[in-house]
Each structure stands twice: as C-alpha cells, then as structure tokens.
C-alpha cells in the first residue's frame, strides 16, 4: 500500500510530500520539527504516540532534552488552535505521550507526472557530481503565446540559478539523478506553480509543491518564480542526498562533497538549535579536511561559526570576536574566491561581517548576492536587518517583507518575522508587533530574543499578566532558563543610538512583568 499523500482534519489539510499544512487553502507556517511531529501524529492518528517515539522521529539517535519536544509540540498546538482548545486535536497523555484525537481522512498518492510530462530513462548514476538534475520544458496549462513564453523563461532562469550551486549539476540528458517537472498557469493577480521532483531511476515522485506567486517587482516574474522554486528544490535535495551517502567506490572529492551536504542538511532542520549547529560544524570540518577548496564547506563553516557566536554568552563572544570570527571571515573570503557566481557564498561573507559589526562591508556582500539573484530571500532579509542595526528603520522593512513573500516557508522565516516585529516595536506600535513576535516564537522557539520581545510588547500594550505567563512558560520549557536584563544588555549587536533606544524600551517592558536587573 502506498504511503498517504495527504491528510484532512477539521479545516486543515496536510500534504506529506511537500510537508505543507493548509487551513482552508491558506498556508499555515510551522517550523521544521513541529512539521515532523504533526506528520507522525497524523500517520498514527488515534494511537498513543510515546515521547520516545516522537523524539526519535524528529531528532533521530541524538540525545536531546525532553523540553525540546515540549517547545515544538506547543508551537504545533498553537498553529492548530481553531477558535477552540488545543486538545480538540492533540491530547496529552500525562507521563506517557500524545494522541491525535481529531478524525482524519487519508488520501493516497496519485500519478506522479505533471500534465504533459514525459518519462525519462536513466543510465548510470553520477556519484562524484553531487545533486544532478534534469529540467524538462516547463509545461504551461494554458495554450497561449504569453504563457508558453513564460514557461520557456522560467526554465532558463531556473537552469542558471541551479547551475550556480556548487553541489548541483544541471544535466541535459539521461545521467541525471533527479527530474524537476514544473507546470505553470497564469491566474488573476499572479501565476500558479506546480512542481514535482522524480527519482529518475524509479520514476517515483519524491517531493511536490504548489504555490501562487504574485509579482513583487524585484525582477521579471520568471526570475521571481524560478528563484523561489530553486531555493525549495535545493533544500529538499540537499536533505535527500545527505541521507543517502556516497558509495564505497566514490572518489575522495565525492566524500568531501557529501560531508558538505550533510552540514547544510543539519542547518536546514531549524535555525539556531545548538545540537544542529555543532553537527553542521563537524561535517563542514570533515569536508574541508578531505578537500580544503570545497566552496560549499567553506561557506557553510563560516555561516555556522557566526550562528554559534550569536548564541554565545557575552564572555565567550568576546573571545570569538578575536579568534573565530576572523577565521569565519577568511573561510567566507575563500568561498567567494572559489565560487564567485554563487549567491550563498556572498551571503555568508555578509553574514560574517554583520556579526563583526562591519555593516557597510556586510551590505556590499549582500548586494553582490542580490546582483546574482535579486530574489535571494536570505540576503534580502539580512539587508533589512543590517539597516536596522545601523538605525535606518525606514530602510529595513521592505526587503524583509520581500523575503517573506518570496520564501514563506524558509527555515529563517521565524527570525524574519522577529525583524518585522522589531520594526513596529521600535515605532511604539506594540499591538502590530505582537503577531510577528508570536510567529517568531512559534517558528524559532529556542531564541531568547523572540520570547523576550513578545513578553515586553504584551506588557507595554497593557497585557501584563499575559506577558508574564508567556515568558514564564518559555523559561520553563527551556529547562528553567534564568533571564536578567543585564544578560540581555550583553547580547546587543550594535552601538547605534536608535538601535539601543529600542532595547531600553524592551527592558522597560520586561521590568513591568518582574524580570530582574541582574
């Protein structure tokens, strides 16, 4: 029996291939771990699912604290709350686990081909060439010249963007490991896109997604569609390739390439989780030991060093400023030298320099990434964030909004909502900031700033008890986290007066709910 392709319950539908949750046709954002929890609960609807089963399904064999499960289950339940109680969907069996109690309708997978697609026969596999992709002509579901022309241009842009990724090779013939089939249909206000990835050896569809794109204006419509699609495809195939591993006959270079893929796959799981950052760092180090010139590993190692530094205590961050960030800058510089046409290499260089407070240099690097791909969502979001750190509030909002429109399910979406919440918070618009901070806390639940800004904005909006409960729940879920205002003062990322003034307002809100100074 084939695995279910979708599950329907209440007003929700969950699509297993694309890991997409919808409520009455509208996308519902979930972080990656909450998504995997939901999938397991749906597959075992009505059954008791033990905490051990859930921890193993989401974290594998890694040892993680049980509070991690509590945090992500809480985020899932908030997303499913539909004007009622969370137990309408997931019931806690105290001391044992959880049970999905809402009736679920299951649909099996249908045919895997996009309308008009053709069968591709594949010969040998390319062990040493990483992610090999065949891109057949994009199918237009309307038979008019404008739609056909759009399909041709989407395919051309998609080929260029995927070809720039060091771990990917776009193949013109039968040696590809994967086949990316895409169809488009112009609709009122935009274009509907359906994409599927087939395993070329078996013909099985391994991933599918659909979205409707409205033109933002950063590039032609075909550029925006292909940019959005390329990012989703690469993330999916990185995870798949990382899980498979090279054969014993694979070359030394293939081993380095696979290690780099494992590193990026660890980063794809969720932003800012310490265990994932440490795992990614080990894989990138292993790749560079095998091949010191591997651009993917160079960029990934630089990225991971910065992410670890941002989570560090004030004391260890001072040390990192002197040592590891210099190493990260060197790694990122080598990455752009090895892959000057890869936008992510330039993004990683900008990310390092933002953390070093070299804000003008960071904007130059992000600008280079955007010159290569105007729809690079991560570069857009962090361009806005750098403007924020420089006190340029009116220049921060638009690029972050564009990032959210281009990549609404990116692993960084929680943080991008946090940035937009800060924009409104800095302007004293607490009620507008609160929904962004709620999303940030749900999608990036391990980040202290997401929790503290939500609590502070609630308090300043007059919802003091709600703010206190919100922060107390977060601290408890994080294993009794001890929060003080002095510890937050040590974690600021800029000395710009406008930036610091907003943080003083942040501390004022926290004082209203009883957070200690030290």
Features:
single chain, 518 residues, alpha+beta, Arc Repressor Mutant, subunit A, Rossmann fold, Serine Threonine Protein Phosphatase 5, Tetratricopeptide repeat, 4 domains, 6-stranded mixed sheet, 5-stranded antiparallel sheet, 14 strands, DNA-binding, WH-like_DNA-bd_sf, DNA binding
How much is the radius of gyration in Å? Answer: 23 Å
The count of DSSP E runs of length 2 or more, i.e. the number of strands, is 14
Percent strand: 5-15%
> What is the CATH T-level topology of the largest domain?
Serine Threonine Protein Phosphatase 5, Tetratricopeptide repeat
Tell me which CATH architecture of the largest domain applies here: Alpha Horseshoe
Number of helices: 20
Name the CATH class of the largest domain: Mainly Alpha
In helices, the fraction of residues equals 40-55%
The residue-averaged pLDDT reads 86
For the biggest sheet, the summary is: 6 strands, mixed
* Strand-pairing-aware structural class: alpha+beta
What is the fourth-level CATH superfamily of the largest domain?
Tetratricopeptide repeat domain
Shape: globular
How many independent structural domains?
Answer: 4
**Straight-line N-to-C gap:** 59 Å
Poorly predicted ranges (pLDDT <50, ≥5 residues)? 110-129
